[in-house]
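Record 1 of the preview.
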Amino acid sequence: MKKICYSVIQLFRYSITQLFTTHNCIKILFVCYLLSNYSPLSPIQPIPPLQPFPPLSPVRVGIDGLSHDHIHGLLRNIGNRSEIQLVGIAESNPELVERLAKQYGFDRDIVFKDVKEMVEKTNVEGVFAFNSIYEHLNTVEVCAPKGIHVMVEKPLAVSSKHARRMKELATKHGIYLLTNYETSWYPAHYRAFEIALEEGAIGPVNKVLVQDGHRGPVEIGCSKEFLAWLTDPVLNGGGAVIDFGCYGANLMTWLMKNQHPLTVTAVLQTIKPDVYPKVDDQATIILTYPHAQAVLQGSWNWPVDRKDMEIYGKEGYVKVFNARDLEFRPNRNKPVETFRITDFPLETRDPYIYFARIIRGEIELKPTDLASLENNLIVVDILEAAKQSAKQRKTIQFKPK
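->
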């Protein structure tokens, strides 16, 4: 008899547990509501169908500065990005505003003299910085205390001092601070990472070569507004070493999963002093790690545009030629394989939608991601050590700031 009673009790408990799941509770409450309003004279009305949740509203974004020529990538399709709404632009150059307003059709009423005024007069949630690298700090100083998230164009900052202040503000006020690189959106890079690190298909990685650059910003026709600070040692922090050295530092830090290098050695030159009298136009940076070495070459003297990477392991290698083309050889006994990569592992290939989805909590930003603050603090430290190495003509023992 006791066993029967115990079984009945257990069955009752299980039934109650199943009954009061979240889904069933909703049903029970709804039925109770119907019964409370039930009258024998009026039949119970059929249950109405559940309505879908409305889509999230677009993230309200602003732009701090229009002088960076990468701004065209955002403005070109701004109306087609349903997940962001442009509510403000901070730019003090009326000629530049007029030119871009005519080209892209944005309302001049949303243009403000500076980022402080834009933030005060709009309900902006995130800001894209398309100003000089030196001004990135000011963008964060204005936005962070108000809880406004920031995405800057590469690199994060002109110096480790600026970068640490930006980190301090972002941490204190709980904002996302991302750095955007063109190469973060190359599907071939992610496949190379999988082959070399996740699959271990080439053996332990011991050497990485990264080449980035073009003929030079003057030679390719960058705007006068862009050139005014890109070739300034204060506003940009340097020349090719900053402009293109940052790509390799970002990728190598990613491959090393945020491990700091042991040493940094760099040679900076100005091959065209008549064109770039204030900054370097040729940079070679060598990084050493406990079991690997990286050679980063950033230049304004390449005969062709290039952003490529080679990863060598103990057994084989993988080469990334551009955004999609990849070459892989697992070992010396296997033939070379070539791939055209089309799949992209992230939730979006659009950096501005990526930023919006991170703000909305739809994408988790990991510390080792290419856009992360953790990665890009190391990048700035590497670039600063590279400039120090070139100036002092010696290898710098890397010390994280």
